[in-house]
Amino acid sequence: MYYICGMALIEAVPNVSEGRHPRIIQILANSITNSPGVHLLDASSDIAHNRTVFTIVGEKNPLKMSLLNLYAAAVELIDLRSHTGEHPRIGAVDVVPLVPLAPRDVLICLSIASELGKAISERFDIPVYLYENSARAPERRRLEKIRSGGFEGLTEKMKTKAWHPDFGRPRPHPSLGASVVGVRRLLIAYNVNLETGNLDMARHIAYTVRASDGGLKGVKAIGVRTNRADVVQVSINLVDYEKTPLYVLFEWVKREASSLGVGILNSEIVGMVPASALFPGANRRLQLTGFTVNQILEYRLPHLHTQPPG
Description:
Number of helices: 9
Oligomer: single chain
Distance between the termini: 11 Å
CATH architecture of the largest domain: 2-Layer Sandwich
Number of domains: 2
Order of helices and strands: EEEEHEEHEHEHHEEHEEHEHH
Largest sheet: 7 strands, mixed
Strand content: 15-25%
Shape: globular
Number of strands: 13
CATH class of the largest domain: Alpha Beta
CATH topology of the largest domain: Formiminotransferase-cyclodeaminase, Chain B, domain 1
Protein backbone atom coordinates (compact mmCIF):
# COMPACT_ATOMS: atom_id res chain seq x y z
CA MET A 1 0.00 0.00 0.00
CA TYR A 2 2.66 2.53 1.04
CA TYR A 3 6.32 2.30 0.06
CA ILE A 4 9.41 4.44 -0.26
CA CYS A 5 12.24 3.40 -2.57
CA GLY A 6 10.47 0.06 -2.93
CA MET A 7 10.61 -0.63 0.84
CA ALA A 8 7.43 -1.41 2.78
CA LEU A 9 6.09 1.02 5.35
CA ILE A 10 5.02 -0.67 8.59
CA GLU A 11 2.83 0.81 11.30
CA ALA A 12 3.58 0.24 14.99
CA VAL A 13 1.30 1.28 17.85
CA PRO A 14 3.28 1.01 21.12
CA ASN A 15 1.15 1.42 24.26
CA VAL A 16 3.13 2.84 27.19
CA SER A 17 2.09 2.84 30.84
CA GLU A 18 2.41 6.59 31.36
CA GLY A 19 -0.26 9.18 30.69
CA ARG A 20 -0.01 11.75 33.49
CA HIS A 21 3.36 13.48 33.20
CA PRO A 22 3.79 15.57 30.03
CA ARG A 23 7.55 15.85 30.44
CA ILE A 24 7.98 12.07 30.55
CA ILE A 25 5.60 11.58 27.63
CA GLN A 26 7.60 14.10 25.58
CA ILE A 27 10.88 12.32 26.34
CA LEU A 28 9.31 9.02 25.27
CA ALA A 29 8.06 10.64 22.05
CA ASN A 30 11.51 12.09 21.38
CA SER A 31 13.08 8.65 21.80
CA ILE A 32 10.86 7.41 18.98
CA THR A 33 11.60 10.22 16.55
CA ASN A 34 15.36 10.13 17.16
CA SER A 35 15.53 7.35 14.55
CA PRO A 36 15.78 8.80 11.01
CA GLY A 37 13.09 7.52 8.67
CA VAL A 38 10.47 6.98 11.40
CA HIS A 39 7.44 9.25 11.59
CA LEU A 40 5.34 9.81 14.71
CA LEU A 41 1.78 10.21 13.42
CA ASP A 42 -0.07 10.46 16.72
CA ALA A 43 0.35 10.42 20.49
CA SER A 44 -2.81 10.01 22.59
CA SER A 45 -2.56 10.15 26.39
CA ASP A 46 -5.24 9.41 28.97
CA ILE A 47 -4.88 10.51 32.59
CA ALA A 48 -7.35 8.00 34.05
CA HIS A 49 -5.92 5.11 32.03
CA ASN A 50 -2.40 6.42 32.82
CA ARG A 51 -1.41 5.32 29.35
CA THR A 52 -0.12 6.80 26.10
CA VAL A 53 -0.65 5.27 22.67
CA PHE A 54 1.88 6.25 20.00
CA THR A 55 1.30 5.61 16.30
CA ILE A 56 4.46 5.47 14.20
CA VAL A 57 5.38 4.35 10.70
CA GLY A 58 8.69 3.43 9.12
CA GLU A 59 10.64 0.81 7.23
CA LYS A 60 11.68 -2.38 8.99
CA ASN A 61 15.13 -1.52 10.38
CA PRO A 62 14.49 2.13 11.36
CA LEU A 63 11.21 1.08 12.97
CA LYS A 64 12.87 -1.63 15.02
CA MET A 65 15.59 0.78 16.17
CA SER A 66 12.99 3.38 17.10
CA LEU A 67 11.07 0.89 19.24
CA LEU A 68 14.24 -0.22 21.02
CA ASN A 69 14.96 3.45 21.76
CA LEU A 70 11.50 3.69 23.31
CA TYR A 71 12.25 0.74 25.60
CA ALA A 72 15.57 2.31 26.59
CA ALA A 73 13.76 5.51 27.60
CA ALA A 74 11.09 3.57 29.50
CA VAL A 75 13.79 1.80 31.53
CA GLU A 76 14.81 5.17 32.94
CA LEU A 77 11.39 6.78 33.33
CA ILE A 78 8.71 4.23 34.28
CA ASP A 79 8.38 2.10 37.40
CA LEU A 80 5.27 -0.09 37.50
CA ARG A 81 5.67 -0.66 41.23
CA SER A 82 4.24 2.84 41.74
CA HIS A 83 1.98 2.90 38.69
CA THR A 84 -1.80 3.09 38.98
CA GLY A 85 -4.37 3.41 36.24
CA GLU A 86 -7.66 2.13 34.91
CA HIS A 87 -6.27 0.30 31.89
CA PRO A 88 -5.04 -3.32 32.27
CA ARG A 89 -1.26 -3.65 31.85
CA ILE A 90 1.65 -6.00 32.50
CA GLY A 91 4.48 -3.80 31.29
CA ALA A 92 5.95 -0.32 31.10
CA VAL A 93 5.92 -0.67 27.33
CA ASP A 94 2.86 -2.84 27.62
CA VAL A 95 2.14 -3.92 24.07
CA VAL A 96 3.66 -3.23 20.65
CA PRO A 97 1.30 -4.12 17.80
CA LEU A 98 2.87 -4.26 14.35
CA VAL A 99 0.41 -3.56 11.55
CA PRO A 100 1.04 -4.35 7.87
CA LEU A 101 -0.38 -1.64 5.63
CA ALA A 102 -0.63 -4.12 2.76
CA PRO A 103 -1.36 -7.88 2.90
CA ARG A 104 1.98 -8.71 1.27
CA ASP A 105 3.82 -7.16 4.24
CA VAL A 106 2.60 -9.60 6.89
CA LEU A 107 5.80 -11.66 6.65
CA ILE A 108 7.91 -8.55 7.17
CA CYS A 109 5.92 -7.73 10.30
CA LEU A 110 6.29 -11.29 11.61
CA SER A 111 10.06 -11.07 11.26
CA ILE A 112 10.14 -7.69 13.02
CA ALA A 113 8.10 -9.10 15.92
CA SER A 114 10.49 -12.02 16.45
CA GLU A 115 13.63 -9.92 16.10
CA LEU A 116 12.25 -7.20 18.36
CA GLY A 117 11.12 -9.65 21.05
CA LYS A 118 14.55 -11.28 21.14
CA ALA A 119 16.35 -7.93 21.29
CA ILE A 120 14.10 -6.57 24.07
CA SER A 121 14.71 -9.60 26.28
CA GLU A 122 18.47 -9.60 25.67
CA ARG A 123 19.12 -5.85 26.05
CA PHE A 124 16.72 -4.96 28.85
CA ASP A 125 16.03 -8.28 30.62
CA ILE A 126 12.30 -7.83 29.94
CA PRO A 127 10.37 -11.05 29.20
CA VAL A 128 8.37 -10.87 25.98
CA TYR A 129 5.21 -12.64 24.84
CA LEU A 130 4.21 -12.92 21.18
CA TYR A 131 0.49 -12.48 20.46
CA GLU A 132 -2.15 -12.37 17.69
CA ASN A 133 -0.68 -13.51 14.35
CA SER A 134 2.75 -13.92 15.98
CA ALA A 135 1.52 -16.22 18.76
CA ARG A 136 3.27 -19.56 19.14
CA ALA A 137 0.40 -21.09 21.11
CA PRO A 138 -3.38 -20.69 20.64
CA GLU A 139 -3.95 -19.40 24.17
CA ARG A 140 -1.55 -16.51 23.52
CA ARG A 141 -3.35 -15.07 20.52
CA ARG A 142 -5.63 -12.90 22.65
CA LEU A 143 -3.98 -9.99 24.44
CA GLU A 144 -6.46 -10.09 27.30
CA LYS A 145 -5.41 -13.66 28.13
CA ILE A 146 -1.77 -12.62 28.42
CA ARG A 147 -2.70 -9.56 30.49
CA SER A 148 -4.95 -11.51 32.85
CA GLY A 149 -3.76 -10.94 36.42
CA GLY A 150 -1.97 -7.71 35.53
CA PHE A 151 1.52 -6.67 36.54
CA GLU A 152 0.74 -7.47 40.16
CA GLY A 153 -0.03 -11.13 39.37
CA LEU A 154 2.73 -11.64 36.84
CA THR A 155 5.32 -13.23 39.13
CA GLU A 156 2.99 -16.07 40.14
CA LYS A 157 1.62 -16.47 36.63
CA MET A 158 5.07 -16.87 35.11
CA LYS A 159 5.97 -19.66 37.53
CA THR A 160 3.74 -22.00 35.53
CA LYS A 161 5.32 -23.45 32.40
CA ALA A 162 2.26 -22.56 30.34
CA TRP A 163 3.06 -18.88 30.88
CA HIS A 164 6.80 -18.87 30.41
CA PRO A 165 7.62 -16.03 28.00
CA ASP A 166 8.57 -16.55 24.36
CA PHE A 167 11.76 -14.57 24.96
CA GLY A 168 13.66 -14.01 28.19
CA ARG A 169 13.62 -15.54 31.63
CA PRO A 170 10.36 -16.62 33.31
CA ARG A 171 10.21 -13.74 35.75
CA PRO A 172 9.08 -10.14 35.31
CA HIS A 173 11.51 -7.25 35.30
CA PRO A 174 11.16 -5.66 38.77
CA SER A 175 10.05 -2.24 37.53
CA LEU A 176 9.17 -2.82 33.87
CA GLY A 177 7.21 -6.07 34.08
CA ALA A 178 6.85 -7.87 30.76
CA SER A 179 5.97 -6.83 27.24
CA VAL A 180 3.73 -8.16 24.46
CA VAL A 181 4.70 -7.90 20.78
CA GLY A 182 2.87 -9.17 17.74
CA VAL A 183 1.32 -8.68 14.34
CA ARG A 184 -2.33 -7.71 14.05
CA ARG A 185 -4.65 -6.05 11.57
CA LEU A 186 -5.76 -2.43 11.82
CA LEU A 187 -8.10 -1.84 14.74
CA ILE A 188 -9.92 1.17 16.10
CA ALA A 189 -9.49 2.19 19.74
CA TYR A 190 -12.82 3.78 20.58
CA ASN A 191 -14.26 5.08 23.86
CA VAL A 192 -17.84 6.00 24.70
CA ASN A 193 -18.27 8.25 27.75
CA LEU A 194 -21.47 7.89 29.78
CA GLU A 195 -23.24 10.59 31.78
CA THR A 196 -22.99 8.68 35.04
CA GLY A 197 -20.43 7.89 37.69
CA ASN A 198 -21.78 4.35 38.10
CA LEU A 199 -18.98 2.01 37.01
CA ASP A 200 -21.23 -1.04 37.14
CA MET A 201 -23.29 0.44 34.29
CA ALA A 202 -20.21 0.83 32.07
CA ARG A 203 -19.16 -2.72 32.89
CA HIS A 204 -22.64 -4.04 32.10
CA ILE A 205 -22.70 -2.30 28.71
CA ALA A 206 -19.20 -3.58 27.95
CA TYR A 207 -20.39 -7.09 28.75
CA THR A 208 -23.37 -6.82 26.41
CA VAL A 209 -21.38 -5.41 23.49
CA ARG A 210 -18.23 -7.53 23.41
CA ALA A 211 -18.03 -10.48 21.07
CA SER A 212 -16.77 -12.97 23.66
CA ASP A 213 -20.02 -12.60 25.62
CA GLY A 214 -22.36 -12.79 22.64
CA GLY A 215 -22.34 -9.16 21.56
CA LEU A 216 -21.07 -7.65 18.33
CA LYS A 217 -18.49 -9.33 16.11
CA GLY A 218 -14.95 -8.01 16.37
CA VAL A 219 -15.60 -6.02 19.56
CA LYS A 220 -13.58 -6.10 22.80
CA ALA A 221 -14.75 -3.85 25.63
CA ILE A 222 -14.28 -3.04 29.30
CA GLY A 223 -15.89 -0.53 31.65
CA VAL A 224 -13.51 1.94 33.34
CA ARG A 225 -13.51 5.14 35.35
CA THR A 226 -12.44 8.46 33.87
CA ASN A 227 -10.80 11.49 35.48
CA ARG A 228 -14.32 12.82 36.17
CA ALA A 229 -16.29 11.40 39.08
CA ASP A 230 -19.57 11.84 37.18
CA VAL A 231 -18.43 10.11 33.96
CA VAL A 232 -17.54 6.46 33.30
CA GLN A 233 -16.38 4.94 30.05
CA VAL A 234 -16.95 1.96 27.84
CA SER A 235 -13.43 1.45 26.47
CA ILE A 236 -13.50 -0.51 23.21
CA ASN A 237 -11.15 -2.13 20.74
CA LEU A 238 -12.96 -2.61 17.45
CA VAL A 239 -10.83 -5.30 15.84
CA ASP A 240 -12.97 -5.75 12.73
CA TYR A 241 -14.74 -2.57 11.64
CA GLU A 242 -15.94 -4.28 8.45
CA LYS A 243 -18.02 -6.80 10.41
CA THR A 244 -19.18 -4.18 12.91
CA PRO A 245 -19.21 -0.60 11.58
CA LEU A 246 -18.60 2.22 14.05
CA TYR A 247 -22.14 3.55 13.81
CA VAL A 248 -23.58 0.10 14.65
CA LEU A 249 -21.30 -0.13 17.67
CA PHE A 250 -22.21 3.36 18.86
CA GLU A 251 -25.95 2.77 18.45
CA TRP A 252 -25.68 -0.49 20.43
CA VAL A 253 -23.94 1.26 23.33
CA LYS A 254 -26.41 4.16 23.16
CA ARG A 255 -29.38 1.78 23.25
CA GLU A 256 -28.00 -0.19 26.20
CA ALA A 257 -27.22 3.03 28.07
CA SER A 258 -30.73 4.33 27.40
CA SER A 259 -32.22 1.11 28.80
CA LEU A 260 -30.36 1.91 32.03
CA GLY A 261 -31.56 5.50 32.03
CA VAL A 262 -28.13 6.88 31.12
CA GLY A 263 -27.16 9.35 28.39
CA ILE A 264 -24.06 9.49 26.16
CA LEU A 265 -21.76 12.42 26.91
CA ASN A 266 -19.54 11.89 23.85
CA SER A 267 -17.28 9.37 22.18
CA GLU A 268 -13.65 9.49 21.08
CA ILE A 269 -11.32 7.74 18.69
CA VAL A 270 -7.89 7.12 20.19
CA GLY A 271 -5.05 7.41 17.70
CA MET A 272 -5.48 6.76 13.98
CA VAL A 273 -8.44 5.41 12.04
CA PRO A 274 -8.69 4.13 8.45
CA ALA A 275 -10.81 6.31 6.19
CA SER A 276 -12.98 3.35 5.23
CA ALA A 277 -14.23 3.10 8.84
CA LEU A 278 -15.75 6.58 8.71
CA PHE A 279 -18.91 7.76 7.00
CA PRO A 280 -20.67 11.07 6.18
CA GLY A 281 -21.69 12.81 9.37
CA ALA A 282 -19.51 10.61 11.59
CA ASN A 283 -18.57 13.48 13.92
CA ARG A 284 -22.21 14.26 14.62
CA ARG A 285 -23.66 10.74 14.63
CA LEU A 286 -20.95 9.35 16.92
CA GLN A 287 -20.87 12.48 19.13
CA LEU A 288 -17.11 12.52 18.59
CA THR A 289 -14.98 14.87 20.65
CA GLY A 290 -11.53 16.12 19.68
CA PHE A 291 -11.42 14.24 16.37
CA THR A 292 -9.44 15.83 13.51
CA VAL A 293 -8.58 14.90 9.94
CA ASN A 294 -5.01 14.25 11.14
CA GLN A 295 -6.28 11.04 12.73
CA ILE A 296 -7.21 9.59 9.34
CA LEU A 297 -4.38 7.25 8.39
CA GLU A 298 -4.68 7.70 4.63
CA TYR A 299 -4.57 11.49 5.03
CA ARG A 300 -1.24 11.42 6.89
CA LEU A 301 0.68 8.90 4.79
CA PRO A 302 0.66 10.11 1.16
CA HIS A 303 2.88 13.15 1.76
CA LEU A 304 5.48 10.87 3.39
CA HIS A 305 5.66 8.13 0.80
CA THR A 306 4.74 7.16 -2.73
CA GLN A 307 3.45 3.92 -4.15
CA PRO A 308 5.82 1.80 -6.29
CA PRO A 309 5.17 1.41 -10.00
CA GLY A 310 2.63 -1.30 -10.80
